[in-house]
Amino acid sequence: MPKRAILVVDLQNEYWPGGNYPLQGIEAAAANAARVMDHARAKGDLVVNIRHEMPGGPIFVPGSPGVDINPAVAPQGDEPVITKNFPNSFRDTELKDLLDRNGVEEVVVVGAMSHMCIDATTRGANDLGYRTITVHDACATRDVEFQGATTTAPQVQAAFMHALAFLYGEVVSTDELLGR
């Protein structure tokens, strides 16, 4: 089995109720992400926590409570925490170097938002040669609007997970991943 890392992307307070950009189903997604993280820790897989900051932006303001990783998926021990400023967790961060130093060949992606940072990070990992698995029920999104048309969160989720499964790796449920 290839050396694996779990990438826990942007499960920060900003996305919870009371945050500035709440997502539909964030609590359920985080609970599944926590299950994936606990399973990985028990197996000795690398767990990498990734947090977004948006200097000068309206959300993820550095130093605000919104940028804190939610306690439901808090890092443990000396687990690395990577701060990023772009949707792709590899862009201008030390993530690739960290994975390569640890001999990682496969990444499991969980977190938020499915249509933005999960999509960008999964595609980025695939483009860099990592085998990718996205855990769809450990990811969350929200309704989006474009040119007056609203697409519901479940539709957004389905469309993005389909696209990732089509050419960018496996997309599985938490139970499927843990049952392997």
UniProtKB/TrEMBL annotation:
It is an enzyme of class 3 (hydrolase). Keywords: Hydrolase. Pfam families: Isochorismatase (PF00857). One of its GO terms (molecular function) is hydrolase activity. The keyword Zinc does not apply. It comes from the Bacteria. InterPro entries: Isochorismatase-like_dom (IPR000868), Isochorismatase-like_hydrls (IPR050272), Isochorismatase-like_sf (IPR036380). Residues 5-149 form the Isochorismatase-like domain. Transmembrane segments: none annotated. The keyword Cell inner membrane does not apply. Its EC number is 3.-.-.-. PANTHER family: ISOCHORISMATASE HYDROLASE, PEROXYUREIDOACRYLATE/UREIDOACRYLATE AMIDOHYDROLASE-RELATED. This is Cysteine hydrolase family protein.
